[in-house]
Amino acid sequence: MPELDFVAPTTVEDAVRALAAAGGGGRPLGGGTDLLVQMKSGRARPKAIVDLKRIPGMIGIREEGGGFSIGAATPGALLGEHTALAAAWPGVVEGANLIGSTQIQGRATLAGNLCNASPAADSVPAMVAAGATAVVVGSKGRREVPVEQVPTGPGSTSLAPDEFVAEIKLPARPPHAADAYLRLIPRTEMDIAVVGAGVNLTLDAGGTITDARVALGAVAPTVILVPDAAKAIIGTKLDEAALAALDAAARAAAKPIDDKRGTVDYRIKIAGVLARRAAGIAYERAKAR
Amino acid sequence: MTGVLEKPAAAELKVVGTRPIRPDGVDKVTGRAQYGADYVMPGMLFGRIKRSPHAHARIVSIDTKKARALAGVKAVITAADLPNLASEEYEAGEGGGDLRDLSLNVMARGKALYEGHAVAAVAAISPVIAEAALDLIEVKYEPLPHVIDVEAAMAPDAPVLHERMFTQGLPEASSKPSNISRVNKLGRGDLEAGFAEADVVVEGRYVTKGVHQGYIEPHACLASFSEDGQSTVWSSSQGQFMVRTYCSKLLDLEAANIRVIPAEIGGGFGGKTTVYLEPLALALSRLSGRPVKMVMSREEVFRATGPTSGAVIEVKLGAKRDGTITAADIVLKYQAGAFAGSPVGAGSMTAMACYNIPNVAITGYDVVTNTPKVAAYRAPGAPISAFGVESAIDELALKLEMDPIDIRVKNGVASGMQAVYGPTYNSIAYLDTLEAIRKSEHYAAPLGPNQGRGLAVGFWFNIGGESSGAVHINDDGSAVVVTANPDIGGSRASMAMMAAEVLGLPVEQVRPVVGDTTAIGFSGLTGGSRVTFATGMAVTRAAEKVVEDLRRRAALTWDTAVENVAWENGQAVCLDPAKDVKPLTLKQLAARSGRTGGPISGEVSLTAQGAGPGFAVHLCDVEIDRETGHVKIVRYTAAQDVGRAIHPSYVEGQIQGGVAQGVGWALNEEYIYDKDGRMENPGFLDYRVPVASDLPMIDAIMIETAPNPRHPFGAKGVGEVPIVPPLAAVANAVRSALGVRFHELPMSPPKIRAALDAQG
Amino acid sequence: MSKTHVTTVVNDDPVEFLTDPSTTLLDALRDHLGLTGAKEGCGSGDCGACSVIVDGRLVCACLMLAPEAEGRRIETIEGMAQGGALHPLQQKFLEHAALQCGFCTPGILVAAKALLAENPDPSETEVRYYLAGNLCRCTGYDKVVRAVMDAAADLRQVRRA
Q: What digits encode the pLDDT tens for the residues B549-562?
């Protein structure tokens, strides 16, 4: 790895300034579990690294407005240890805690997973289904966007060169609401998802689904929200017919490629299987809340 | 025990068969042990290799001027700086090869034959500068059409790798260049008559992909060439003498001037029985006048070091209704990689070795392909042919409605029978091993929903070979055992145990040392499951020599004949009724060694023969998620004929490790190539070896009913045969669970799901 | 290229070193501090042979840059044995023959230590999933898992006593 500037600012403003000064050659550093791999392979050749971890609040989870605000450099392991977050958003937490290994989860972040913009990112389908937002900061100021607007294609984002995600926010939770994330991998751990499905459900007191969001990973250039899949189950108690309709809607929306991890045909079928299974788990969880 | 060692009964042994803590263990659990990449020398340079991005290309020119001019670069070499060897067959380990091929593999000459093939190397004062220097080396390639698949490479219109390769072993000599380097045939009896007798015939075509040994430690060495022509190499390898021999041949240096010091080795499995870096590091050191360290990245390990063959296996079996197999016709086509020398010979010899069949024909093709030259991988060639044969036998058993153990017992080999590949079996316990599985709890356990059970057997010859061992007695009566075999599986412990048993010492008082090439006589490499057998034999004989010497010294001390002295429990005991003397301990004899002839030691170099083949019988239960195709291994039992387990924990460890590799081979591991012949998955992310959560506990049953008569303690080689049955054991279990037989490995989830969908 | 000065604590000892900012923590430990216990098996966070503990968290040292160690507390394999006595995990690995070539062993021991600090009574499944990021090619994991669970039992007894 060639010449590199490393700075660890202690304010957001300083971090923005450092990125702006690098003129497109700078990268923000959270957990580093994607960035360092790409630097070694030559896919990323930054001139400057701006470490976010010394900025107060970048590592930590705040409960606010009934929801949660998660600092961009918070490792996945911390998410799992936060009782209230894990209870309110088990799907988001389990997605984050499936990334890589225990070692990776000690460092990898939701913000980093989102901004790496892999269509197979494990934390993103659940974040999209959750209706999570990203707080983006840069020289033009601060904006908050739905997370699904950040990745624009494999490896690319809508962020300007001097922008970075400072927080991930999860909205307040109504009663009888829960989420779940499932993925298919060939082994039991350590693999990139061949397909991922995040489902977020809200039920009424009688157990009927009143709101749903279904997001699929690794079946399109970005994680996709599938409104037809949600429509298939809203108003139902997730009976066999609803599950079959959900399966079909997920399959119809999936537009995957053939690659070393899976075939088009396989990914389409598994999208249906995982959407059904994740919905089932979210449903049981929601009934219990 | 007196005089010549007779094979002791198990009950008499005090050390062999117990489970002491391995002597090198503390260094390994504290991080002190030094592996190849852990060595440093003052002034050390860092070596890096430039590699071909093309799977097949003519090297038109290489310009190293700019690289040599870069500040901090101290040496740059290409094939032009290395001797241009003539073809010469050489035996240095598990099988040999052609020295010219080896030198061309280490550094390409004229042609790049696989993506990752080394074309140049540099040494610089920092890794960053070395990498920058690589970018400055200008190589002009003329890309050529490439071929990877073994049958595609055999086709008459395939791109040819070597213009002067003409297929050997054909009835008439060929003058057309071919990618088939050789055709082997072995067999016996009358195939046509055999099939005519058969009531039932099964036929199948099976396919396996290239897989890598997957050792966690990348290749690493440090070489230092001195101004007086003497050189030292620290290397993680499976044989310091092998490294010395290859470096001397490839660089045209006198072997005696090269001292190779074995670093601890982080896994080999056969893949480190050859050289990639050492000759280059030495050449760079000679040119620069500084020590040169070279360490491969994981990507380089995958792109440029030997995997084992991908292959096609065609099996046709004929049997009578009562289960007697009357004929077997097998064709094997193995990838050799860029140069001739796949393990198709061993695959042929082992394919039917568990079966006593009168009419057998096995044809093996060795085929070059634009992939890295294959290297030995644990029982090289055998898991591949066993996958085909054991799947076919499973098919036969189903057709005949016979229990899978019954059909194998009916046709199973026993002592006195002649193996298909020639020798007569002597003191084997294959049938006992089958019975052990039949009687196991696992065999009787019921299966749950979506579960299946598969059985498969396997064979490996195990080799003997040249080994040296020396035993020295210290002044305090403790002992040092010196051998020259890198310890890849805990063999130091076994050496200490065998010496301790003979000397009558507690094992803690025996320190085993792995010496470098100047410390001990020639030893063949660590591989072929030979160390406990052959080096153990040398160590045992050396310890026996010491015991002879100790008896002689006691006799001198007591002024009696040596025939009147026995060695028991670490002491010399006087049998002479005329003498009233107390026994002399080893400690006492050591203390007075100066008066009885000087230092006490014994050294033996031998060529061990009669290694005793290994037989394994494996039973595997799987559970399959029918919607996703995900396979879970829920239970695994592996029984093996081990002769005698010197250190049972390490024998179990070999069995469990071999099973794990076989499971990975069956389910997820494969080399994936793109249309340009480039490897798509050169890392542990997408080259999927089993992780801890992928496996259950692996139950190992060690059969000791037939000790090896040729080994002082009855040991047979154990390290390799465990990887032979798992491919078919898992595939047969999948068939049992799904009703679908997989003819191709790996059985990854997309393939399982597709097969289920096709079934309807 | 100017070097960065890093001040950190490794195995309870204060240390300082100069490093290129692009050097990983793994290379800094091995090359600047001579602590070669952590190994590079892959360089991409897929094998766990470089596992260390930073501020109480298990991480891959190959995926941290050396400057990130500033002000942190780092624990490596070299700090596991204390005052001439092996850690119970190290002792159990020897007793259970839970290592063959030993290359993955430092990483697995550090990971197991982190596991037992978080979860003193793990089930076999929990051990296997926690250690999934530590590849071993020699043992098939059987004896590794047994050694970890045996050490966990011993440590629970010590805590009760």
A: 999 999 999 999 99
pLDDT at B91: 66
Residues B656-693 pLDDT 10s: 999 999 999 999 999 999 999 999 999 999 999 999 99
| H or E element that contains B185 | strand B180-188
Interface contact flag, B691 A187, Cβ < 8 Å:
yes
- Interchain proximity C132–B650, CB inside 8 Å: no
A104 touches chain C (CB under 8 A): yes
The answer, for A10 touching chain C at a CB cutoff of 8 Å, is: no
C19 CB neighbours in chain B (<8 A) are: none
For residue B486, give the CATH number of its domain.
Answer: 3.30.365.10
Average pLDDT over residues B716-742: 96
pLDDT for the residue A251: 98
Which residues on C lie below 8 Å from A32 (Cβ)?
63-65, 68
Closest CA to B661 of B669, B652, B651: B669
Q: Decide which of B304, B327, B345 is a domain's last residue.
A: B304
Q: Which two tokens stand for residue B401?
A: 């409605």
Question: Domain range holding B400?
Answer: 381-462+612-759
Same domain, B103 and B238: yes
What mean pLDDT is predicted for residues B504-525?
A: 90
Chain C CB within 8 Å of residue A112 CB:
no
For residue range B551-608, list pLDDT tens digits in order.
Answer: 999 999 999 999 999 999 999 999 999 989 999 999 999 999 999 999 999 999 998 8
Beta strands in A176-275, from DSSP E residues, in sequence order: 177-184, 195-203, 209-217, 224-225
d(CA B531, CA B525) in angstroms, rounded, equals 8
Do both B755 and B654 map to the same domain? yes
Mean pLDDT for A277-284 is: 98
Check which CATH number belongs to the domain holding B102 and give it: 3.90.1170.50
Question: Do the Cβ atoms of B288 and B44 come closer than 8 Å?
Answer: no
> What per-residue confidence (pLDDT) applies to B93?
53
Which residue among C47, C101, C146 sits closest to B265, beta carbon to beta carbon? C101
B623/B527 same-domain check: no
Domain tally for chain B? Answer: 3
Asked if residue B475 and residue B449 are part of one domain, the reply reads no
ipTM comes to 0.97
- State pLDDT tens for residues B142-158: 999 999 999 999 999 99
Confidence check: pLDDT of B463 > 80: no
- Residue where a domain stops, chosen among B304, B331, B366: B304
Q: Is the pLDDT of residue A2 over 60?
A: no
Query: Which residues of chain A have a CB within 8 Å of the CB of C1?
Result: 3
Catalytic center residues of B: 720
* Inter-residue contact C110 to C80 (CB < 8 Å): yes
B231 and B91 share one domain: yes
Residue B198 lies in a domain: no
Asked if residue B276 and residue B262 are part of one domain, the reply reads yes
pLDDT value of position B4 = 30
User: Tokens 């394999």 belong to which residue?
Assistant: C77
Examine residue B598 and state whether it is found in any structural domain, yes or no: yes
Shared domain for B98 and B221, answered yes or no, is yes
Do residues B641 and B525 share a domain? no
With CB atoms and an 8 Å threshold, state whether A107 touches C22: no
Residues of A in contact with C132 (CB under 8 A): 101-102, 188-190
Q: Specify if B121 maps to a domain.
A: yes
Quote the minimal CA–CA distance from B501 to chain C in Å: 20
Which chain C residue has its CA at the smallest distance from A8's CA? C68
Shortest CB distance from A103 goes to which of C24, C60, C129?
A: C60
Average pLDDT, chain A: 96
Residues A141, A142, A148, A149, CA torsion sign: negative
Task: Supply angle C-alpha B134, B135, B138, rounded to 5.
Answer: 90
Nearest to A187 among B680, B688, B753 (CB): B688
The average pLDDT across A240-267 equals: 96
In this structure, the strands spanning A26-29 and A48-51 are parallel
Tokens encoding A71: 């600092």
- Contact yes or no for C132 and A33 at CB 8 A: no
Residues 161-220 in A contacting C (C-alpha not used; CB under 8 Å) = 188-190
DSSP string, B446-488: PP-TTEEEEEEEEEE----EEEEEEEEE-TTS-EEEEE----S
- Residue B272 inside a domain? The answer is yes
- In chain B, residues with a C-beta closer than 8 Å to the C-beta of C104 are 216, 266
> Subunits touching B (CB < 8 Å, at least 3 pairs)?
A, C
| Residue A91 at interface with chain C, using a CB cutoff of 8 Å | no
What domains are there in chain C, each with its CATH number?
Answer: 4-79 (3.10.20.30), 88-160 (1.10.150.120)
